[in-house]
Amino acid sequence: MQHRWEEAMTDMFKRQRDLVDAHYAAGLQSLEDLFRVGDAKSPQEYQEKVLELYRKSFESFRALSESQLREFKAVADQLLAMTGKTH
């Protein structure tokens, strides 16, 4: 039981690290996009860039939330399976 617990926790932390790395990279890309908003040549182009940045940011936040929820559920299911309980 202890060995399975160790494996489960190690796997969970590895997946969390991968998620953090991916979202950190997305955050850096968002910062680069943010700095490019100032390059707009017209109010219309500025508005388009801001809206696109908003859409990307919202999508990134949604994806992060969904991945964290999936990871939490996977770990909870794994722990419940180890204890022999059903949900």
Q: How much beta, percentage-wise? A: under 5%
Report the biggest beta sheet as strand number plus sense, adding barrel if it closes.
Answer: none
Inertia-based shape: elongated
| Number of DSSP strand runs | 0
Distance between the termini: 19 Å
Mean pLDDT: 86
Overall structural class, as computed from helix and strand content, comes to mainly alpha
Helix content: over 70%
- The radius of gyration computed from the alpha-carbon positions, rounded to a whole number of angstroms, is 20 Å
The tally of helices reads 2
Explain what the structure shows.
- With 87 residues, the protein is mainly α.
- It has one domain (2-82).
- It has 2 helices and no strands.
- Helix 1 runs antiparallel to helix 2.
Summed up, what is this model?
With 87 residues, the protein is mainly alpha-helical.
Name a few traits of the molecule.
87 residues; single chain; elongated; mainly alpha
List the helices and strands and how they pair.
Blueprint: H1 2-37, H2 43-83
